[in-house]
Amino acid sequence: MGKKTRNRATRSEGSEGGNPRRPCPCGSGKRYKACHGAGDDVIVVRPFEGLAAEPDLVAMREFLPSATAALPLREGGPVTLASVLPGASAALVRDSGEILLGMQVQTRSGDLSADLAGALAWARSAEPGSSLPVVGPERRTGERLQDVLEPEVPLEPSVHADFAWWLPGGEPDPEAAAMLERANSVIMPTEAVAAPGVRGAYWVDTGSKGHIRWVRTEDEVTLMAALARLSGRGELELGEGSHYAGSFRAHGLLVPVWDVDREMHSSEWAGPAAEFAKRLDEVLAGLDSEPLTDAEHRAREVLAGKQITLR
């Protein structure tokens, strides 16, 4: 093996990165060879680790269609984080000087946290009315979100029913109106499940099913063990009208998913989600003192096979 090839195979974080036939550890769902395996970036599997905002950052990157949140910056003026910006831009500065950063962008960088910090640095010095299509290597400053955000402050995303916030004030011209119509046509109704002890949980109506997707920050092995114990007790569901469907991985975190009754409003799942959070916390606290039984080990294997693909 040549030196360059050998280095490329060993620089990614996580054992999956060096095998071109395995899924890329960045969480894109693509094969490593078709994703970050073609470049020389170090892949940071969990780019938002250490931030209280981590679960909502992952949600905004992966499945919130139209959402905005104020970034809890350590210093500097206000900055709005957006799930997606017009043209999937990495950043834009409005004529008013307002700065917006986009989460859902086209990139092959191995570190989304560094990309966002680079986009922020660009926006702070850009002229009003400018936009940044993509963050290239020349835009990275060496800083990451962990260097510019207050680590203990979570995000408070506002989930919108459409993309009207793209063009604040006034009537859009025909081209902008057509862009908004196209974007709005693909939005799936989505709302946060707001309850004490619940963060990173979102209800979505796909048109054929209702789901609750819940970004969890626990270590995957530990979380799967806890879910297996709840399954063995018959306590894995969120309540009547729900069914545990499986989970998917995103940016180093596991996201359990439940199918839920579409006829129930998202707010009706707040109480059941809070109760589930209490059950899960109790089980997580007892795992060290009470290892899994043989039946629970088998339940964990069954749950591990319930991997779903986010569409």
From TrEMBL:
Tree of life domain: Bacteria
Spans traversing the lipid bilayer: none
Positions of the DUF5926 domain: 47-311
InterPro entries per UniProt: DUF5926, SEC_C_motif
One Pfam family per UniProt: SEC-C
Region (Disordered) location: 1-25
Record-given protein name: DUF5926 family protein
Lineage: Bacteria, Bacillati, Actinomycetota, Actinomycetes, Pseudonocardiales
